[in-house]
Every structure is written in C-alpha cells, then in structure tokens.
C-alpha cells in the first residue's frame, strides 16, 4: 500500500490556485518563485515553473554535478500537510514539457521511471554558481488524491548530486585498513573491479577476490566463498551520489510532507532516537504537535540519529536509493591506484577540525583550524555555536564546511569526483557485501511512496532493499544487510579511511548521534 490514490483528480481550472512554495535542501541550493504554468485538463498534466541556483557547479571531461528535482502537490485547504509526488510527463534529455530556463549551458534529464528530473550543465563549465530562471517541469497529476475544488500548492524539492562515471576502479588499500578488500590470503593487492559481471569471492592465495572479515555477528568469515550477484551495485556502472550528507533541513521537509501517522514513525526526537527536543550532540531537531511538525535551527547541518529504516524511508521518498560499500570506494577513490591507508581525499594524512569562526553558525561559518579537512576524533569545537553549552561543542558541522574558493581536493576533504564529507562528520549507512542479506540488494531506485499499513506507516517498501520484511506491506523493518563506512566526528582517524570496513556489516538496530548517510541513484544507460 502506498500514499498514491487510485482516484482520478479532475482539478477543474476555475478552482485551481497554485500557491508559492520553495525548499532549501542542500548547501546553498535555492528553489524560489514556484508557480503554475500551462495546464491540459484532458491529459491531466500541468507545468510547474520556478527559479533555481546553487553554488560550486561544474562539468568537465571527468564528471559533473546536478540538482535532482522532484515535484509534489498538496491541498492548501487540508490540515494534513501531505505532499503527493507527481511523475514527470515525459522522459529523456530536455523532453517536451520541460525547459532548463534562462541558462544557456543547462539541460534537464528525466530518467525512465519519471520520478524526478536532473538539471545540470550541458557543456563544459568551470566551477561557478549555477543560476537559471523559469525552469519548467510538466507533471502528470492523474493519480493524485486531490479533489476537484482543491486549492493546490506546488512544492519542488531539490538535492545536489554528483555524477560518478562508469569505469574501472580498485577496492582496498593493501590491507592497511581493517578488513580491507584484497586478492588473496597471501596477496595484499586490492580488488580490481573491471566490469559489472558477478564476482566470485573465494579462499584463494592470490590473484582473486578474497574476503577479510571484521568479525561482527552474521558476517562472512575470512576466506569465505560466495558470489556477488550481477544485480548488486558494484560501482563499475555510473550512478549519481548526493554531494553532501543528508541535512536537518531535508529531514524537516521530508517528515512534514508525510501523513500524520507516518510522521511519528520518522520522529528523530522520540524514545527510539534522540529522546529529546533539546540540542544533543549538535542535533537541533525538535518535533511536536498532532499532526507532528518538525523544525530545525541548523538546516545545512547533517542530520544524525538516523536508523537504517529512517535512511531508507527518506531515500525512497526522494526517489533515490542506498549506496553499496563498493560504490563508496568508487565514489571516494575514482580510477586511481590506491594509496596505503588513504582517506577519501587521496592521501594518508588528515587534520581534525577544532575551531569555527563567529559566534553563531548561520551557514557561513568556516574552519579556523589550520589544514583541517575533516571532523573526527571527538574534538571539542571552539567558536560557532559552542558558546551555547556542552551539547553544542561536539558533533557534526555544516555540509561543505572545508570547501572554499581556493581549496584543493586535500584541503576541502573532497573525493576524486567532488563529493563532500564522505569521511568524518557522520558515519554513513551502506549496503554490505559481507552477508547474504546485503548481497540481495538489487539497486532499484525509490519511487516516492512509503508504506501505509497500520503500525508500519512511513517505511520504505522497495523490493530488493536490505531489511525488507517478508510482508511487503510492512516495508523495511530491520538493518540486516546494512553497515557503515567513513567514520564519524567521534571516531579515530583509522575509521575514516576509504577502505576501512570495521563496521561494514554491523547491521546496527539502534540510533546514535554518529549515524547519518546519503543517497545515490542508478542511471539509465543512455542518459548519463
């Protein structure tokens, strides 16, 4: 069961009002001036027009960034606040019914499932602001549960993404990191991922794919034999990854868009999560009322206390999916030869943040720690919000903090492809290759809808995602097959290493101030 209704919505033009709505869901991404464009009552389509900007956009010979956009409609006269996803009318690159707006070097790409659309530079662009007005996306509203006389509000949600191209890469760092991938019991060379074909993992001496266990419960033993299936996302094929970790601002938009019963399932301040509306470990989430309304005072700070079920729910809602641990290494390292003990920025050296500018963290704060490029080690942060007390002094810092106009890959903490904070800040949920539950992952994208079964409202329900209950109506109810990569603000430097697999198959069922994540999206082969 889903939030989608089978009722046909006529939306008679005399009663329609499209109201303004905007969202800021990533580091300096702004969607404004949302309004209604052309409407075709017979085809049950309408266009939504808006302006869009974000910072630090690029396209080069290696890759590019983009904004992933989804459109939702709600009844402004209803107290429920439910925002229903509208599929895009047509697929392809710059299809009929879409426009990239006033920016000449821009295009829209709508994937085959039409859940949302990417807007991105269409040709070479040095790193600069992406700014365009009058972007148009035409959606199909035929399956929405809106009445004929509803006053409609249009909502456009945006998330910054980075394209990771198809190609060869290595997984492992010559067993410098805990349980890193290697080619044999006597061969420390990394795995070489040269295609998307199944991978036969076996107990070999050299020249193969050998598994090293971190020793957590339910994980394959060192030297185990198994097969990584064709369908499992191995990182060879292209995908889009979120440029930044999931933020508190995105989480607020997500929760407040759900039916009231589902909101309580995703309340990060309840007794299964933070247990408080107060600031704890720099998490500023507060939720109250019926229907539940969540707020944040730090919208670009990564959201912590995420369980696996929480992460899967927001990714399904957004039309994204979880990242596999092989994709994690590809996104970090790219096609270059691994460095022993390297971090995601390509060297084996790092400096932890300890000091921030200013007295208030308004999204413009910068690091004052010389050469700092990550947040780890349980450092007490000086400056910024720290003057407010102990709970403000340790925890995640804003997305993109280490990136400046003059920063390098090393000083910004960026991956080979330009993805930020993949190490440190918050450890990130991934799908493991270390047990059978993880290997069942098929890499299907989310469809924008969650479960509605009483007692299980608000769960992701994408078949093939780890943790899915045998009753599909219940959705994802466990973390079996999941784990962490990248380390957190509390961890030692070793846990931040690209190939560290200490918790890759841990399947944690709790919620902690160090748990976060991001999503990725499988790319249609012809439209990357």
Helix and strand topology:
Blueprint: E1 30-40, E2 45-59, E3 65-75, E4 84-86, E5 92-93, E6 98-99, E7 107-110, E8 117-120, E9 125-140, E10 152-164, E11 169-171, E12 191-193, E13 199-201, E14 226-228, E15 239-242, H1 248-255, H2 260-265, E16 286-288, E17 293-295, H3 308-318, H4 325-333, H5 409-412, E18 427-431, H6 436-439, E19 482-485, E20 515-516, E21 520-522
Parallel strand pairs: 18-20
Antiparallel strand pairs: 1-2, 2-9, 3-4, 3-8, 3-10, 5-7, 6-9, 7-8, 10-15, 11-12, 13-14, 15-21, 16-17, 18-19
Textual characterization of the structure:
The protein is mostly beta strands. It has two domains: 13-162, no CATH class; 238-528, Alpha-Beta Complex (paralog of FGE (formylglycine-generating enzyme)). The chain has helices spanning 248-255, 260-265, 308-318, 325-333, 409-412, 436-439, and strands spanning 30-40, 45-59, 65-75, 84-86, 92-93, 98-99, 107-110, 117-120, 125-140, 152-164, 169-171, 191-193, 199-201, 226-228, 239-242, 286-288, 293-295, 427-431, 482-485, 515-516, 520-522. A hairpin with a 4-residue loop joins strand 1 and strand 2. It starts with 29 loop residues before the first strand and ends in a 6-residue tail after the last strand. Mean pLDDT is 92; it is low at 1-26.
């Amino acid at each position: 069961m889903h939030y989608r209704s089978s009722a046909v919505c006529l939306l008679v033009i005399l009663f329609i009002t499209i109201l303004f709505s905007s969202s800021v869901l990533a580091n300096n991404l702004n969607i404004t001036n949302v309004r209604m464009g052309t409407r075709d009552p017979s085809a049950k389509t309408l266009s939504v027009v808006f302006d869009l900007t974000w910072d630090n956009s690029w396209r080069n010979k290696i890759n590019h960034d983009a904004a992933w956009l989804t459109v939702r409609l709600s009844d402004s006269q209803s107290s429920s606040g439910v925002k229903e996803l509208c599929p895009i009318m047509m697929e392809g690159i710059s299809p009929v019914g879409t426009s990239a707006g006033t920016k000449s070097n821009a295009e829209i790409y709508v994937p085959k499932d039409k859940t949302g659309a990417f807007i991105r530079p269409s040709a070479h662009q040095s790193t600069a602001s992406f700014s365009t007005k009058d972007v148009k996306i035409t959606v199909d509203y035929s399956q929405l549960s809106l009445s004929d006389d509803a006053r409609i509000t249009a909502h456009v949600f945006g998330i910054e993404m980075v394209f990771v191209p198809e190609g060869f890469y290595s997984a492992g760092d010559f067993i410098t990191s805990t349980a890193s991938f290697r080619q044999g019991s006597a061969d420390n060379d990394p795995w070489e991922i040269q295609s998307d074909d199944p991978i036969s993992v076996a107990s070999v001496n050299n020249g193969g794919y050998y598994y090293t266990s971190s020793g957590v419960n339910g994980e394959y033993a060192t030297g185990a034999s198994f097969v990584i299936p064709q369908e499992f996302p191995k990182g060879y094929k292209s995908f889009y990854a979120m440029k930044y970790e999931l933020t508190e601002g995105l989480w607020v938009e997500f929760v407040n868009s759900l039916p009231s019963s589902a909101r309580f399932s995703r309340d990060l301040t309840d007794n299964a999560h933070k247990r408080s509306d107060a600031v704890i470990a720099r998490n500023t989430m507060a939720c109250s009322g019926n229907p539940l309304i969540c707020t944040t005072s730090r919208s670009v700070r990564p959201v912590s206390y995420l369980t696996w079920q929480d992460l899967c729910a927001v990714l399904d809602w957004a039309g994204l999916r979880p990242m596999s641990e092989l994709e994690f290494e590809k996104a970090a390292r790219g096609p270059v030869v691994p460095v022993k003990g390297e971090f995601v920025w390509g060297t084996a050296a790092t400096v932890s943040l300890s000091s921030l500018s200013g007295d208030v963290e308004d999204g413009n704060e910068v690091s004052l720690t010389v050469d700092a490029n990550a947040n780890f080690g349980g450092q007490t942060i000086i400056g910024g919000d720290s003057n407010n007390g102990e709970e403000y002094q340790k925890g995640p810092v804003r997305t993109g903090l280490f990136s400046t106009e003059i920063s390098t890959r090393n000083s910004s903490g960026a991956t080979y492809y330009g993805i930020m904070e993949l190490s440190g800040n918050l450890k990130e949920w991934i799908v493991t290759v270390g047990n059978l539950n993880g290997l069942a992952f098929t890499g299907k994208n989310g469809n924008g809808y969650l479960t509605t079964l009483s007692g299980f409202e608000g769960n992701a329900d994408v078949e093939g995602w780890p943790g899915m209950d045998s009753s599909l109506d219940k959705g994802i109810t466990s973390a079996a097959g999941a784990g962490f990569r990248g380390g957190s603000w509390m961890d030692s430097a070793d846990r931040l290493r690209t190939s560290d697999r200490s918790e890759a198959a841990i399947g944690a069922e709790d919620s902690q101030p160090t748990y976060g994540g991001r999503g990725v999206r499988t790319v249609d082969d012809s439209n990357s």
